[in-house]
Specification:
seven-stranded mixed β-sheet; globular; 1% helix; mainly beta; 828 residues
């Protein structure tokens, strides 16, 4: 085998000319602590017009610099002679090198891949073997859902590499296509987010490769994964009361007039890479900005614009992306500045702004202490039309009269962090003081508590920082509480922002939740929706929104809502939406919905793990949550959007980002048999998650499914076995010697027809089965049984139970005091 290579080690770029049949990608950097990415070009020389397995003689490995990486394949769609390459990839795996080396096999039927100039009979990786725990494996059986396909990648369903490398069989599934013939001579790039890597472990990237021409393929492993701050435009707060107006009308996009602001959860030392606004503009353009406030100055030097994009009109009624990578002062400095994003819609504009997306590269090691810095301009009035907000040179002021006004903002703090200090930055040149509070709201109780409080003091025209290190319950637990910030501001002060300093957790978990206190959710429409909080909970009318921040390489697993609904006629509903910015015709797509029912005076938790579109894709979608309170006196504590890495988290063999529609339940997966667990189990059902037509569905609309006991789900007059007979009463008549047993009908009669009843008699109170139990009456039509005489020897007793029976069978005899179901004989 001949090899030619040229290296540029300072740029960590290598080019290999390989005379080989197949390829194996192994990216190895001995100094990976300083290297975050590596690019590899593999030349395919022989053979063409078929898939070939990897060649371990060319093994390329990489040592993981962190738990996540982006794997990218790039190639040309046409070769230099103008011929279509028709390239495809299949059975892509990322696996530890030791596992790879222990599971190798020669694949029968693919001998052409092993002859000269390749390495004859060199075995490839047997991903179908038992005990091969890959960090990533995609066989492309049904789709390419785990990949960002760009404009030219696609799922190819007409041929594939063998799914069983040991036999060379089963080639009827799909593959990852790298360009159609009518795409022309373009560069095709596809990528996927790899999670669950163990830092310091050595991995192999391997796969099968099809091509019609001997065109090279570029492979990149990149550990420098930008974080997407994907902000729904409707979750931007009006900059000033009475001047800036939101008008969304439940559309999922921001319309209206004025300037709107959202806080940016940035990390000290991070680098802002780009700003993108997705908008539809028919006339006057909308503008999105990244801005910062310098805490060392006051006046026209603030705010400072770091990046700006303005939409242009298009006549196609579709959202378009307007992007800039020109960022002034891109490195984040939270010790001096507060940062926020803004959207300006000019008066008379018909612009519709969908989202603002900001790409940020965080430092490799989180700073300690870390800081959550929230610009005061992004706070919103606590009580609509009562608390009034102003804007002065990038700062927030209160125009509430007589004052003071109260203002709210969300704060996101990592799980297991420890809050160390809260700092309020303000210009206080008046006699009255402003106060900042960090508030903790337990998710299982009504009310909340102040974790930290700090007030301004004295009078000075200088910008000053006021701090406290007195923190109550400093450990952050997003599983049991929600957190938000509150400002109480009299007129005449300028507030720059609030900093919450914390010690970051020792380890960053790959699972977690975007935990959102409900009270800072923003009113949907300035002319209609009104927030009126009650005891640190959201109350008012009617719709309230907030961005949900999720990272690529994750899947949404579950939603938790904590609310108090003590109104029998009103419910609290929360919706989780995603919005596809590539089209305007679909609108917000419902991912999950939670709703209370009935009245309960305490806080209740409502949960669902039925998620539609669970894989996070920030390139295509933005995500937001909406509380709907109607006009009812109900309150919401908060919402948790639980996430986990892509992969198989429930052990059923299916990836939640590819084809598993519920990665928390092993019984739910493609092709699963339907069982009575409250959900639709087969992900391949075209109507998933709708249970209609299955044993879980109530097809005759009588309130019961087959799983709930409906013996005829096409007949609404019968729906279940009847419930337990009620209020059993025994009367003995001394004069006649008769014993009368009376009862009330079950609360659930099991059908529209009245049930019949069996009365059981036993001399043993714990045994109504034969022979101790006897049938005193069988199929009685009324609600009583009369025994003309009942001989009971002295010192003994007789015990009775009544069982209802309907078209769906026998009902319950009840339960013991320990909750055990009572059994009894069949009558007659």
């Amino acid at each position: 085998m001949s090899r030619c290579w040229s290296g540029r080690p300072r740029r960590l770029w290598v080019h290999l000319c390989l005379a080989a049949a197949g390829f194996l990608l192994a990216l190895f950097f001995p100094r990976l602590a300083a290297a975050q990415s590596l690019k590899k070009t593999v030349d395919r020389h022989f053979p063409a017009f078929q898939y070939c397995p990897i060649d371990p003689a060319l093994t390329l490995s990489f040592t993981a610099a962190g738990p996540e990486a982006i794997l990218t394949f790039t190639t040309n769609n046409f070769d230099s002679t103008g011929s279509w390459n028709a390239q495809a990839l299949d059975n892509i795996a990322v696996v530890e090198q030791s596992v790879f080396q222990a599971h190798q096999v020669v694949t029968p039927g693919f001998e052409g891949c092993y002859i000269s100039p390749g390495t004859p009979n060199t075995p490839g990786y047997d991903f179908s073997a038992v005990s091969t725990p890959e960090a990533f494996l995609d066989l492309f059986d049904a789709n390419a859902g785990a990949w960002s396909l760009g404009p030219f990648g696609f799922f190819q369903n007409f041929n594939s590499a063998p799914r069983d490398p040991a036999t060379g069989t089963d080639t009827s599934f799909g593959a990852l296509g790298l360009g159609h013939t009518d795409d022309g001579p373009v560069s095709v790039s596809v990528s996927t987010h790899i999670t669950g890597l163990l830092t310091g472990h050595t991995y192999v990237v391997t796969g099968w490769w099809y091509t019609q021409n001997l065109e090279p393929l570029d492979i990149t492993i990149d550990f420098s994964i930008p974080r997407a701050l994907n902000l729904a435009a409707l979750a931007f707060a009006p900059r000033a009361s009475g001047t800036d107006f939101i008008s969304t009308s439940g559309s999922g996009v921001l319309t209206g007039s004025g300037t709107f602001i959202a806080p940016l959860p940035l990390t000290q030392g991070a680098t802002i890479q780009s700003l993108e606004m997705d908008a539809f503009d028919f006339d006057i353009g909308a503008t999105a900005r990244i801005e910062r406030i310098d805490t060392q100055v006051f006046g026209p030097a603030n705010p400072q614009v770091l990046a700006s994009v303005t939409s242009s009109p298009f006549g196609d009624f579709l959202p378009h992306s307007f992007t800039t990578s020109t960022i002034a002062n891109a490195v984040v400095d939270l010790t001096r500045y507060f940062y926020y994003a803004s959207i300006t819609i000019p008066p008379g504009s018909s612009s519709q702004v969908y989202r603002v997306s900001i790409s940020v590269s965080d430092p490799a090691t989180p700073p300690s202490p870390s800081t959550a810095a929230v610009a005061a301009a992004a706070f919103d009035p606590e009580t609509t039309s009562v608390d009034l907000k102003g804007f002065d040179s990038g700062t927030m002021t209160s125009t509430t009269s007589p004052g003071p006004g109260r203002f709210l903002a969300p704060v996101r703090l990592p799980q297991a962090a420890t809050v160390q200090a809260v700092r309020l930055v303000a210009r206080d040149a008046v006699a009255t003081d402003a106060t900042a509070r960090l508030i903790r709201v337990p998710n299982n109780a009504f009310g909340g508590s102040v974790m930290a409080s700090i007030a301004t003091s004295g009078s000075s025209t200088s910008v000053r920082t006021f701090s406290t290190t007195t923190i109550t319950t400093p450990a952050i637990d997003n599983g049991t509480a929600y957190y938000y910030l509150q400002l109480e501001v009299p007129t005449g002060l300028q507030i720059y922002g609030v900093r919450v300093e914390y010690a970051p957790p020792a380890n960053t978990p790959t699972t977690g939740a975007d935990s959102l206190a409900a009270v800072p959710f923003l009113p949907d429409d300035s002319s209609f929706d009104r927030r009126a909080p009650l005891s640190n909970a959201l109350a008012g009318q009617a719709r309230f929104n907030m961005s949900v921040l999720l990272q690529d390489g994750r899947q949404v697993q579950r939603l938790h809502m904590h609310v108090r609904d003590n109104d029998a006629n009103g419910d609290v509903t929360v919706f989780l939406y995603r919005y596809d910015v590539t089209t305007a015709s679909v609108g917000p797509q419902l991912m999950a919905r939670l709703q209370t029912a009935g009245a309960l005076s305490t806080v209740q938790e409502v949960v669902t793990d039925t998620i539609i579109g669970r894989k996070v894709d920030n390139a295509r979608y933005f995500y937001f949550a909406q509380f709907y309170m109607g006009l009812d006196p109900v309150q919401a504590n908060g919402l948790q959007v639980e996430y986990a890495p892509c992969g198989d988290n429930d052990g059923d063999g299916f990836d939640g980002c590819v084809n598993d529609c519920n990665d928390l339940r092993a019984a739910v997966h493609p092709g699963a048999a339907e069982v009575c667990d409250g959900v639709l189990d087969d992900c391949n059902n075209p109507f998933w998650p709708d249970t209609s037509g299955t044993i879980e569905g109530d097809d005759d609309f009588d309130g019961f499914s087959e799983c709930q006991g409906d013996c005829n789900d096409s007949d609404s007059t019968v729906w279940s076995p009847p419930g337990e007979a009620q209020s059993l009463l025994i009367t003995y008549t001394v004069t006649s010697g008769a014993t009368t047993i009376q009862w009330s009908a079950p609360a659930n009669t099991g059908g529209t027809a009245a049930p019949v009843y069996d009365t059981l008699l036993s001399s043993v109170k714990s045994n109504f089965n034969s022979p101790s139990g006897v049938c005193a009456e069988t199929n009685g039509a009324d609600l009583s049984t009369i025994l003309a005489s009942l001989a009971v020897p002295a010192g003994q007793a007789r015990f009775f139970l009544v069982r209802a029976e309907g078209a769906c069978g026998q009902g319950s005899l009840g339960t013991t005091s320990a909750g055990t179901q009572i059994t009894g004989r069949t009558c007659p």
